[in-house]
Design a protein that fits this description.
It is an enzyme of class 2 (transferase). The chain is of the alpha+beta class and 387 residues long. The protein is 29% helix and 27% strand. The protein is built from 10 helices and 17 strands. The protein has helices spanning 58-67, 94-97, 99-106, 115-129, 185-196, 201-209, 220-223, 258-284, 300-314, 329-336; strands spanning 9-16, 20-34, 42-54, 75-76, 86-91, 108-112, 134-138, 141-144, 155-160, 164-171, 174-181, 218-219, 239-241, 288-292, 319-323, 356-357, 380-386. Strands 1, 2, 3, 4, 5, 6, 16 and 17 form an 8-stranded mixed β-sheet that branches. A hairpin with a 2-residue loop joins β10 and β11. α5 runs antiparallel to α8 (258-284) and α6 (201-209) crosses α8 (258-284). The longest helix has 27 residues, at 258-284. The protein is globular, with a radius of gyration of 23 Å. It binds adenosine-5'-triphosphate and pantothenoic acid.
C-alpha cells in the first residue's frame, strides 16, 4: 500500500487471535457525496481492506500499522483518563494480552470488543450486506446461497481458529456459545509441524494436497476384510480409526510420507469438527451450520470433508455452509461495532470528517447496500456514511 494514500483510510479494527492477527480497515476511493436526504450526512465510497499477520510476528503487524499510518484511523477519546488517546476497535484474546504493547509502541488504546459478539456481528454483516458471500461445497460443486434476510436465524456458527467455538445465533446480538473443542486449526498446524517437519501452514496444506490418508488411516474395509459393514451404514472406505494403521504397520514416523501424514491429519481434524458441529446442531434443531475461521482458507478438501461429515451424520438434514471472508469474521464484527457508539463518543480524526458512523447495516442506521467485488475476495466495496 502506498502510505501517501493513507489519508483515505479509517476505521481500523483488529482481531488478535492465538495464531493470527486479522486487520480490517476502510479505504476511501476519493468519491465523497452529500446524502440528498440529509445535509448532515455524507457518504464516502471505498472498500474494506484485509490483512493478516502471525501473532508470533506481532512486531511486523505493528510496523505495518505504523508504516501505513493506520493507527491514526481510530477515534479520539475525550473521556477522563483516555484523554487525547486514539483508540482502535480490537477483539480476540490478544486485545487483552497486547493492550500495553499497542499503547507503548503506537500510542493507541485498544477498545475491546467481545470475541464471540464480534464473530456473530461479522457473520451477520456479511450475510446481510455482501452478495454471494455464503456458499455450500459438496462433491466438488460450489454453490452460492442467497439467504433471505427474514429467514436468517437460527444458525450454528462454527469458528475454526486455533481452537473451535460453536455459537447458536438467534438474531442480531442474540447468541449463545454452546460448545467448543480444543481440536482445531492450532492442533492441525501444531501436530503437522511436529509430524512432518513442515515450516508453515501453507507448506502443510501443500503436503496434504499430494497425500493419501488411506496409507495411515485404518478403514472399515481393513478391519472387515475389504467389505462394507452395511448393517450399521459404514462403507468399506469409511475411516474406522484415524492414524490407526500406524499401530500395526511396524513403521517409524520416518517411514511414512509427510504428504500422507498431512492428509490424514487434515481429514481427522475436519471430520471431527464436522461431527461435533452436527451433534450440536442436532441438540438445538439447527439446520444451517456456517463454518468460519482461518483454518478453512477456502480449501476444497477441508470443505468437502466437513460437508460430507455434516451430510453423513445428519442424513442430509443439515447443511454446511462456508463464507468467502471466513477468516475475518471477528475483525469485521469489531469493525462494524464502530457504528454502535453514540455520536458524542466519537470525534473526528485527521483522516475523516467529524464523528464517523458506519452505515453498512444495523437497525439505527440507514442501510446502504454493499456491492462485493467478485474478482477479488480480499476487498469488499462499500460505502460508509459520516454524520
Ligand atoms: N498463514 C497461516 N499461518 C498460520 N496458521 C494459518 C495460516 N492460514 C491459516 N491458518 C490456520 O488458521 C488457524 C488460525 O485461525 P484464526 O486466525 O481464525 O484463529 P485465531 O484467532 O488465531 O485463534 P483463536 O480464535 O483460537 O484465538 C491456524 O491455527 C491454522 O490452522
Ligand atoms: C479460547 C478461544 C475462544 C480463543 O479464541 C478459542 O480458542 C476456543 O474456542 N477454543 C476451544 C476451547 C474449548 O471450548 O474447548
Amino acid at each position: 500500500m502506498d502510505p501517501a494514500a493513507t489519508s483515505q483510510i479509517s476505521h481500523l479494527a483488529l482481531d488478535i487471535g492465538g495464531t493470527l492477527i486479522k486487520l480490517v480497515y476502510f479505504s476511501a476511493n476519493g468519491d465523497h457525496c452529500e446524502d440528498s436526504r440529509s445535509n448532515e450526512i455524507s457518504v464516502v465510497h471505498g472498500k474494506l481492506c484485509f490483512a493478516k499477520f502471525e501473532t508470533k510476528k506481532i512486531d511486523d503487524c505493528l510496523e505495518f500499522i505504523r508504516f501505513n499510518i493506520l493507527h491514526h484511523s481510530g477515534v479520539q477519546h475525550l473521556n477522563g483518563m483516555a484523554h487525547d488517546k486514539l483508540s482502535v476497535k480490537a477483539t480476540g484474546g490478544g486485545a487483552f494480552k497486547f493492550a500495553d504493547l499497542f499503547k507503548e509502541k503506537l500510542g493507541i488504546l485498544l477498545d475491546k470488543e467481545d470475541e464471540m459478539c464480534s464473530l456473530v456481528g461479522g457473520v451477520n454483516f456479511l450475510l446481510k450486506t455482501v452478495p454471494r458471500e455464503a456458499f455450500t461445497y459438496l462433491d466438488g460443486q460450489k454453490e452460492f446461497v442467497e439467504i433471505d434476510h427474514n429467514d436468517l436465524y437460527p444458525y450454528l456458527l462454527v469458528n475454526i481458529g486455533s481452537g473451535v467455538s460453536m455459537i447458536k445465533v438467534d438474531g442480531d446480538g442474540k447468541y449463545e456459545r454452546i460448545s467448543g473443542t480444543s481440536l482445531g486449526g492450532g492442533t492441525f498446524l501444531g501436530l503437522g509441524k511436529l509430524l512432518t517437519k513442515c515450516e508453515s501452514f501453507d507448506e502443510l496444506l501443500e503436503l496434504s494436497h499430494h497425500g493419501n490418508n488411506r496409507v495411515i488411516d485404518m478403514l472399515v474395509g481393513d478391519i472387515y476384510g475389504g467389505t462394507d459393514y452395511s448393517k450399521i451404514g459404514l462403507s468399506s472406505t469409511a475411516i474406522a480409526s484415524s492414524f490407526g494403521k500406524a499401530i500395526s504397520d511396524g513403521k517409524e514416523l520416518e517411514d511414512y510420507q509427510p504428504e500422507d501424514v498431512a492428509r490424514s491429519l487434515l481429514r481427522m481434524i475436519s471430520n471431527n469438527i464436522g461431527q461435533i458441529a452436527y451433534l450440536n446442531a442436532l441438540r438445538f434443531g439447527l439446520k444451517r451450520i456456517l463454518f468460519g475461521g482461518f483454518f478453512i482458507r477456502g480449501l476444497e478438501y477441508t470443505m468437502d470433508t466437513i460437508s460430507v461429515a455434516v451430510h453423513f451424520w445428519s442424513r442430509g438434514e443439515a447443511k454446511a455452509m462456508f463464507l468467502r471472508h471466513e477468516g475475518f469474521l471477528g475483525a469485521l464484527g469489531a469493525f462494524t461495532s464502530y457504528k454502535t457508539q453514540s455520536h458524542n463518543d466519537l470525534k473526528s480524526n485527521q483522516h475523516t470528517v467529524q464523528r464517523a458512523i458506519l452505515n453498512c447495516s444495523g437497525d439505527n442506521f440507514r442501510h446502504i447496500p454493499v456491492t462485493s467485488n467478485l474478482n477479488d475476495s480480499e476487498t469488499i466495496e462499500c460505502s460508509i456514511s459520516l454524520v
